[in-house]
Predict the structure.
Amino acid sequence: MPQVLIATKLDSVAEEVLRDAGIEVEVCPGLDENAMAEKIPGFDGLIVRSDKVTRKVLDAASDLQAIVRAGTGVNTIDVAYATSKNVQVMNTPGANSNSVAELAVSFMLASCRKLVYADSSVKKGLWEKSKLMGQELQDKVLGIVGLGNIGSLVAAKARGFEMNIIGFDPVISESKAADMGIELKNLEEIFSEADFISLHVPLNDKTRGMIGSELLERLKPGAMLINTARAEIIDPQALMDILTQRDDILVGTDVFFEGDTEGEKELARIGDRLIATPHLGASTREANRRAALAAAEGIRDFLIKRMVRYPVNNLEIPPDLDPRFLELTHLIGEIAYYNIGGDQPHEVLITCYGRLNKHTELLTGYLLKGLMDIYQMEVISPREAEKRAIENGINVVRRIPDDTKGYGESMTIDILSKKKGYRETSIRGTITQQSELKINRIDTFLNLDLIPSGHMLFSYQQDRVGLINDISSALSRGGINILNIRFTTDREGRSIAVLQTEKGVPAKIFSEIKQAVSAYKAFMMKV
């Protein structure tokens, strides 16, 4: 009989569903890493929410077959290590979306009518009506950053208040945004024009600190910044600086830099300009029941029927396919993202050479899932990725390979964007005999033979004598050690320099390098 550990607080419907299926259930919420590692042996399934599932826990999980996150984000689960352990990871997308969206709207309403202060004032026996003149949501501009499940629901509710809605999402098409009553804008325009800005992007390497001083300084007088996503999306120092400099900016937040813990919160320094809740986004009876039901059904169906409802990883990898080719699709997609300036893809083309060609469909799914992760969409499975891409206006093309070129087992991925003019990039990669990911070509630069690792700096410029010396000199002045360099030229007299450094390159040094070599394009990334 399968056994499932519910290591979090969930609605009792989860236990009912599992026990009705003949599954043994034990509920032990609040386990830390050590306690979970000690408890997990013998269990076939695990249900968590924000609980951490680390390598230590997975190493101790002798019988574990599946993990379900009762929610969407899986940043607390080591998904890659779970995959290597042949553990299926699933989530329950959409279960909490409505409750989070309603909380975001609640922040706007509370701010407009000064409800928090008014409530406290009346309870103190005061009658400060003259101090409590409010405003209406009607005709105000709402900027939504991230138009996935939650962001689109916030937009739908805001339309009921007759707000003007603008939004940013690097993947969604203009036609789809228009169908939702949203005008697409860039981040600079949103922070300059919106009366309320609501953040709904996942936390990853691309979104961490994405809201910095340059954007915050654009905020309109009296604007309100609402965060029901993750605190780390905003640069903490930049936020405190702007709140100190300007006393007109309001904040509504459900998440804190200090984490989900008791104790003083730095944002409390702004007093009545802050409306704060203790991470209540998913804390409604309805959301808790939906998440519990979906999680229980997901793990039940996997353990009993071997059916995967909402996979985060995909264990159905053919035995003749090196799993590192799945990682290669993500790496190429990430380089392509930077290479076209982060603009929305209009078309994605994939060509698989040699024996890889028979796995084109699977690799396409992983490529598109990786791109959607990179472009800040919510976590989805490789199986659903192509459908989601097409819904967002991305044309997907699988090309027939010309194996006479002698590329062996490799793949070429082309990404085209028409959002700001016409941009395209073409990248070919493979796996070495030592199982390393290698980039053979980027655009017109052949024979690059790049094995990306760690901190990488890419610089494109017209070729001339002394380029590498100029770059290395700037890095040396900044105390940055170079670990590896790849350099090549194309037929048009241009060159590409790719450097691996021992640590990240500061913005000032990066700017000096671009100026020194007159780079027409340059970017940094971490692999």
